[in-house]
Design a protein that fits this description.
Blueprint: H1 3-13, E1 21-22, H2 25-28, H3 33-45, E2 49-54, H4 61-75, E3 82-90, H5 104-122, E4 129-135, H6 155-165, E5 172-176, E6 185-186, E7 189-190
Parallel strand pairs: 1-2, 2-3, 3-4, 4-5
Antiparallel strand pairs: 6-7
């Protein structure tokens, strides 16, 4: 058994209804061993899967669809049994580096346009649920904030709210990292 299969075996013993998370090889790789293990869990448990697509893999939209189609085929699962997490990560890593000050509104509008195009494409695939998640905390906090608070505008929440206002509310949910995102580090140790 792989580590993920061992974990799901223990979850079954405890009566937990766990759902595995998979993603493109760049996130879960290298190779297909993890995806093959998730596919075995899917066949055994029948609860579906969550796919996490990280920021850089969201563009261009054609590449996103190809990546999703390949993942669904490799896992042997249909979109109706799949929760899709569109994970922008830290917005400063997504190419929107001016998310503070007077340019915030323009940057949010640009990101909304990009995500709207992606949502229009993936929502037609019939996923069980689509979640937009992001962090507006920058990857690297300037040293001047080492011993003080840093106030950061909630651009990621504004993006989600504008997508909802455009009509994405039937399919789109919001996943909040709070103050730390999954790739955040502190010195030499993960947070």
């Amino acid at each position: 058994d792989t580590a993920v299969e061992w974990l799901f075996g223990r979850a079954r013993q405890l009566g937990l209804l766990a759902v595995p998370v998979a993603g493109p090889e760049v996130v879960r790789g290298p190779g297909t061993a993890y995806l093959e293990a998730v596919a075995r869990i899917l066949r055994r448990d029948g609860r579906g899967v969550a796919l996490r697509i990280y920021g850089p893999e969201l563009r261009p939209v054609g590449q996103l669809i190809a990546s999703l189609s390949q993942l669904l085929e490799t896992l042997g699962v249909r979109p109706e049994a799949t929760d899709l997490f569109l994970d922008l990560g830290a917005l400063d890593n997504f190419g929107h580096k001016k998310l503070a000050g007077h340019q915030l509104e323009d940057e949010v509008s640009a990101l909304v346009a990009e995500m709207w195009a992606a949502l229009n494409t993936v929502s037609s695939m019939g996923f069980r649920c689509i979640v937009l998640q992001a962090s507006n905390l920058p990857d690297k906090v300037p040293p001047r904030f080492n011993d003080s608070c840093m106030v950061v505008p909630r651009a990621e929440l504004q993006v989600w709210q504008q997508l909802i206002a455009r009509g994405a509310g039937q399919v789109l949910r919001f996943g909040d990292y709070a103050i730390v995102h999954p790739r955040q580090t502190d010195s030499d140790k993960p947070v």
